[in-house]
Write a structure and sequence with these properties.
By secondary structure, the chain is mostly helical. The protein is 54% helix and 6% strand.
Length: 218
Amino acid sequence: MDLFAHSWTALRQAVAGLADEDFARPSGCRGWLVRDLVCHLVVDAQDVLITLVTPADAEPTRDAVTYWQVSHTPPTGDDPLDALIVRLAAAYQDPALLKFHLDDVGSAAGRAADLADRTRRVSTQDQVLTAGDYLDAYVLEWTLHHLDLVAHLTGVDGPPAEGLARTREMIDKIAGTPFPDTFSDTDTLLIATGRREPTAAERTALGDLARELPFVLG
């Protein structure tokens, strides 16, 4: 199974099925409404298109796991790019326009990924990695943002189980130790990335790992 295509298609279908009023609801991203998150996905799709046509000759410097810059400080919303996303999203006004733009650019990103030689080296953010590793890294991006999309919505399908499982594998590697087997994939991702606080029982199960939380990926 191509997890990039599977995860990306599921996320875009979830957005396509949203009611207009859903775009004004909060998302799982701190300080962002659903419309802000969807606007961010448009930018993500543009990044995929740009990266897949930016070849590199150098040896890979990152893979799907080490691609991510990790901090332990949750975003405050003060980052200039985060603020720009909010202004861009508000400019759409009609949610149908935002849906259309995501479908248009997102479909193109999906086709580009289907056509990509996964062994080819590409460059992004001064990093070099294979296209396959780059697209695998985006399984994590799509899965986490799919969880963000449905965080405060009802009746909207969450991310595919396969994407959740693969993202958990990557989170375990980023953390340097596996999260407890008693945690579901969804709970692991939400707790690991600071999207929700662990309960007292979960904190006990985490042991020393609890002191490392959250793993904020950028």
